[in-house]
Amino acid sequence: MKLKFPAFAGKLLGAALGFLLGGWVGFALGIILGHSFDYHRQSAFALLSRLRPAANLPGRSERLYRESLYICLGHLAKQDGRVSPQEIAVAEKLFKRLRLKPAEREEAIARFNEGKLASTQVEPRLEELRKRYASKPARRLDFLDQLLVMAYADGGPRASQLERLQAFLPLLDISPVDFDRLHRRIREQKGFADKEQKQYTYKGQKQRSQPQPSLLTAYRTLGLNSDASAEDIKKTYRKLMSQNHPDKLMAQGLTDRALEKAKERAQEIQQAYALLKKAQKV
């Protein structure tokens, strides 16, 4: 139930406070100030009610992020020539998680359908997205993560879908190592067998086999080669922890799901650094 104040509420409150603080003189001043409050109250509240809905709308950068995501999801789903019910379900799940209003949901569906068109160019949007989120790598990684989920919606990714994702990496300024890490995690979540990862690595990435498997994983987690120096390991660790610290990322407006992944990423970085620190006595 909405609370309603009488039209003379300002005068009554002003008179009471004025009398307590300044006697009869304060009483008179309180009535004058209260009358002014009552006179302007309705117009002020009306102005605030008009401004309130606009405050709940996503900002310009967030709108670019969402529109680009919807378009890329449709673009990726269409790579094998058709969009399956499972792929549509992934998009609907995302819309539900974002708590889109009816009008926003219609816009999201329109953007998804736009991405399915052969004439749609996604590259310019990704380049703009990279510029807008240049200082927020976690958001760009979350973007790629959403696309990987779509690629696995219908029994695993097609070769054409992986090729498109790999083409997106330089546009989003995401390293092949980070792509492989996200890809492995999605494969594990979807219950795929832990097959050899060579066919899923970014084209041109060199394979290294010298370190033992646990150390190799640690180097990859930090994005380093196996011949990295102790100083490089320490610097990289500090940089990655600064980029993936949950407290810092909360200020960037990440979703709860993205924050949870950031916590997992921070734990992976800490574990990898601890292993390399022990092995190399950093």
From TrEMBL:
Pfam families the record matches: DnaJ, TerB
Q: Does the keyword Chaperone apply?
A: yes
Q: SUPFAM superfamilies from the entry?
A: Chaperone J-domain, TerB-like
> For the region Disordered, what residue ranges are annotated?
194-213
* UniProt KW Chaperone keyword: yes
Q: Which Gene3D superfamilies match?
A: DnaJ domain, TerB-like
Keywords attached to this entry: Chaperone
Span of domain J: 217-281
Q: Where is the composition biased (Polar residues)?
A: 199-213
Q: Which InterPro entries match?
A: DjlA_DnaK_co-chaperone (IPR050817), DjlA_N (IPR007791), DnaJ_domain (IPR001623), J_dom_sf (IPR036869), TerB-like (IPR029024)
Q: Which NCBIfam families match?
A: PRK09430.1
Q: What name is this protein filed under? A: DnaJ like chaperone protein
The root-end lineage is: Bacteria, Pseudomonadati, Pseudomonadota, Gammaproteobacteria, Oceanospirillales
